[in-house]
Amino acid sequence: MSQKIESEKMFVKEVFTNWYRIPEYQRPYVWETDQVIELLDDVYQAYQSNPDSEYFLGSMVLQKKEKKEKDTTYYEYDLLDGQQRLTTLFLITAIVRDLTPPTNQARVKVCTDAIFQMEVPDYNIPERIRILFDIRKCVKEFVDEYVKTGGGTQEIDKLIKLTQDKDVDISIRNMANAMLTINQYFSNGHSIDGFFKYISSNVLMIYVAAEELEDAFHLFTVMNNRGIKLRNSDILKAENLAVIVDENLRVEYAKLWESIELYFAEDFDNFLSHLRTILVKQKAGYNLLREFEENIYAPKEYNQSTKEYKNKPPLLTKGKPTFEYVKRYYNNYVSLFDKDNYDANKGFDIYNQLTLMQKGFEADYWIAPVLRYYDKYQTTDLLEFLVLLETKFSSEWIIGLSPTKRIESINIIIKAIEDTQDTKSLQKSKVFSFETIDLIRTLCGGIYGRKYAKYLLLKIDLSYLGNTTKFNPPETISIEHILPQNPETTSQWCTDYSDDDREKWTNRLGNLILLSRRKNTAQSNYDYSRKRDKYFKGNIELFSNSVRIMKDYPTWELKDLKKNHEEMLVRTLGFYGITLTDDQLRDALQ
């Protein structure tokens, strides 16, 4: 690091003697009712249990900047981390100011000074607010009207309307909600006098600050690695905004990034990882930030003759190119995966195929080649490509190839997409080939307990659905044995099946169905007729194949199980272009 790092603990009353800025690259204020109440409760309980104790509230990561205004030099701190807590403390201070009776002018003044500095022309002192919200102009205006202005936090009707207006900026909605929550908290009997004294003088925060943006980001990363919940995407955004000189363009890209981030929520880093894969086309060796820095922005290659690394051309450059790249692939993702982009008139083949892959696969690195294909070919032969990709990905998963081998296959497919000139050439490529003998052997045996079992059953279910209906399996899915694993010795199951039969057939494909709820062990051992009427009824209606079995099989003797297994096995292998010979099929039913 190039500059001295500041680190210090401060009580809340000292925190608001400094000047802060929420930069335009920051995420919005996202705390909702639960987080605000949790902060209030934590502080209040600490105050009640021991009013003389100190309470640690959290940390801030700052970039320290020297500012000059009216011949006055002061320091302003850009807030990289800690925005949610600091903003909430800011709102609490404003509400305490407005709830304090006129007889206590000392507290009103203390709170007012913690919110903004009043202009004093005679002393050449300008008006200045303690936290400058540069994330949005409308947020600045909201803070001026409802936080800075005395009594603004008590405009309850206006605040309620702001929380209900979906067109209002998300920071404003959440701030208005936080103010209503804090007001309600104190109106419910919590002592504002004891609380404010305690939070001002006993609640402390720790801050670390650096003058150089690069150093501040390094601190940001280090604290992230030590457990503070900072996302790699936040730092990546900041690094790219930092190289854009034009302020209007910087704000535009900050808003763009924020909207994409809101769309993906906690999966945003995963989305960026897919873009990394498309660019680098090799297994990730580092965390996301280091991957972008060392393998995308400044890649190197090893020279065997000189035994040294030399620079390669960047795969992508920082600033506008990165934002436009993210925007392009975000649009691709929405076009592919947003259910509102599909309608019944065109059929749901593509939507259903993607849903199967999303719901059924244990890993999501197959998304990268889908995005790359769509970026190059759009919807041309898209369904055919998805089927090829899905059969390749699932077959390697089923036969037990390692994640490393499967990731390597995905990267080879991305290279093939980029190297081929048309979709037909890509479809003929050997990159989609897979080992059929191992797949046949695996599917002919017991599959229950394998991670891919649910996927196979979903795949079979989809095949009975057709393309005029959306495939929409429930979130909670369980796999149920028709012939139970541990039937009572006095049950009909033990009459219909020998011990050897049960050992051989219980966990095979033809004996398994999907349910739309978690298992009920007490009912799963019922005899078939009772189980069919009492247990399965009402829990299979969302699964076409499960409904088919219950309809077509009034009994579940060994011959029934074998017949269903044959149908499901033949259907499943057909997905992979495999047709069994008569001898192979006979062996599979032994």
How is the main sheet built?
6 strands, mixed
Percent of residues in helices comes to 40-55%
Total beta strands: 12
Strand coverage percent = 5-15%
Shape: globular
Strand order of the largest sheet: 1-8-3-4-2-7
* Poorly predicted runs of 5 or more residues: 225-229
Gyration radius, rounded: 31 Å
Structural class: alpha/beta
Mean pLDDT across all amino acids: 87
**Secondary structure tally, helices:** 28
Give the assembly state of these chains.
Answer: single chain
**What is the rounded distance between the termini?**
70 Å
Total domain units:
4
Can you tag this structure with a few keywords?
4 domains; alpha/beta; two-stranded antiparallel ribbon; single chain; 28 helices; globular; 590 residues; six-stranded mixed sheet
Question: Can you walk through the features of this model?
Answer:
The chain is an alpha/beta fold and about 600 residues long. The protein has four domains: about 5-230, no CATH class; about 230-270 and about 285-325, no CATH class; about 340-435, no CATH class; about 440-590, no CATH class. It has 28 helices and twelve strands. The strands form four sheets. It has a six-stranded mixed beta sheet with strand order 1-8-3-4-2-7, with helices on both faces. A two-stranded antiparallel ribbon has the order 5-6. A hairpin with a 4-residue loop joins strand 9 (about 300-305) and strand 10. The longest helix is centred in the first third of the chain and has 18 residues, at about 170-185.
